[in-house]
Amino acid sequence: MSYTWVKTFIEDLALQPNGRLRMDCPSCHKKNTLSVSDNGYERMYNCFYADCDVKGVTGKRLTKINSRMVFEKKSEPSIKHTSFVDFQLPTTFVPLSRNQKATDYVRSVNSYQAYLDNRVDIMYDIRFDRVTFLVKDKGRVVDAIGRTLADKKPKWYRYGKTNFGFHIHNNSDNIFIVEDCPSACSIADKVSSLALMGTNLLQQHVDIAKKYKNVVVALDKDATIKAMEMTKKISHYVNCKVAILTDDLKNLKDNERERIIRKHID
Fold this sequence. Notes:
This protein is α+β, with helices and mostly antiparallel strands. It has helices at 4-11, 67-75, 100-108, 112-116, 181-186, 203-209, 224-234, 254-265; strands at residues 20-23, 34-38, 43-47, 55-57, 93-95, 122-125, 130-137, 140-148, 156-158, 166-168, 174-178, 192-195, 214-217, 239-242.
């Protein structure tokens, strides 16, 4: 089905370069299901409602900021780059609000505010009964990480085949590296965050950390030794320190999380 009018609608939205928003879908009219992101050249949009197939990319546009870069790229010789196949959201993913149990879980791990603030996209997998955190790279959904609500194994499940971390950037020069998505969401209003979804530091994670002025590795208490090893490696590139936690960030009270953050970045 052609949705040319939707593309025009997206192009006319008042959205700044590198900005993103979530809103009601103009096609299916479901509440808060349309995600739009602008990377400075084009806009990517996708409706997360299972029965709606609205998604796409607007045409590239020239601005004073990117015009020089665009023309320079056109004059360069053609180089073939290897890229991964775009991740397709399973049809069983529905808006978080469709399941009260999923919403309650997101609230319980202090991630709901990040969801309301459009810092992250969180959905519900009706087939596998999982809360799913969408992993993005440059505004595109490249993977999803699901947490079971049915007390089944595995507790966490990666839907795609990437090794991307769950990265939330909030225009802060400081970033906390944590273990899981809820911990990353719980501090997203104060600092940038990167969830490793484990305790293995990959080069992709290091590349993200290098973009920040200060890095704090804040893994769970039982992974303190691993956190120190990561800190040593990252310190070769950027100022990095370790935060020794008594409990997961996602389980702390707001004032406790803020005290930890201030202690390590002030």
